[in-house]
Amino acid sequence: MKKIRWGTLVAYIVLAIFAIITVFPFIYMILGGLMNFRETTTIPPTLIPKHPEWGNYAKVFAQAPFARYFLNTFITASVTTIVSLFNALLGAFAMVNLKFKGKGVVQVVLLSLLMVPGEAIIFTNYNTIAKMGLLNTYIGLVLPFLTSIFYMYYLQSYFGSISQTIYKAAMIDGASDWEYIWRILVPMSKGGLFTVALLSFISGWNSFLWPLLVTNEDSMRLLNNGLTSFASDAGSETQLQLAAATLTVLPILILYFIFRKQIIRGVVRNDLKG
C-alpha cells in the first residue's frame, strides 16, 4: 500500500509541475496586460501588478483597429470552418461508403499530399492568389483552407466505426446518399464533426503566416498580425501587447471551457460498430 501511495504522490507532483509550466505563460500574459510598461520590462520580472492598469485594454482599441481585426478573424475562421467541415464530411463519406473505380489510387494520392508540409506550398499558393488579384480580400485569406485532407481522414476513421449495415439498410429503404448523410450519418457522428469544427475554427483564429503574406492593409489584417501594431522603431509597448494577446486568446479559452466535454467525446469515442 505504501508503494502505491508513494507512486501516486510522485505522479501527482510530476503532473502538478507540468501543469504549472503549461499554465504559467497564460497567467503571466493576463497579469502582464494589467501592468505598466516599467513593470513588464523590469528584471527580475514583476509577477503581480501593484496597481492594475485596466485602461490598457481601452488603449488597445484606441491605438489600433482591434475591433476590425476581431471581425476579420471571426469571418475568416467561420467561413473556413463551415466549408472545410462540409467538404471533409462529403469526402469521408465517399471514401467509406461509395465504391468507384480508382478509389485506392485516390486514397494514396491524398495520403501523399497529407505528408507535404504547408510551408512547402505556401509561396506557390501566394503566387496563385496574387495572379488572381485576390490580395487583401477575404477570398484570398480563406481560399487555400477551404478543404483539409487531415479532417477528411479523421472523419473517415470516425465513419468507419459505423456499421455498413446501417448504410445498406438505408439504401434498401429507398434513401438517397444525401438523405443518409443528413438524417443518419450526421446525427450519429456529432462528436467527431464537432471536434473537426472546433479544431478548424481554432486553426483559423490562430492563423498568422498566411494573412501576413496576403494582406498589407490594416483593414484586412487578423488578430495575430495586429499585435505588431504595438511595436515601433522606438520599441514595443509590451503591456499593450500582453493585453492584446489576452483579448486574442480569450475567445478560444471560453470555447474550450464551454465545449471541453464534447471535445473529449469526439477524440475518445465509443465504438459504434454493431
From TrEMBL:
It is found in: Cell membrane. GO terms for cellular component: plasma membrane. Its main location: membrane. The chain crosses the membrane at residues 9-31, 69-93, 105-123, 135-154, 193-213, 240-259. One of its GO terms (biological process) is transmembrane transport. It is a multi-pass membrane protein. Residues 70-259 form the ABC transmembrane type-1 domain. Keywords: Cell membrane, Membrane, Transmembrane, Transmembrane helix, Transport. It comes from the Bacteria. Belongs to the binding-protein-dependent transport system permease family. This is ABC transporter, permease protein.
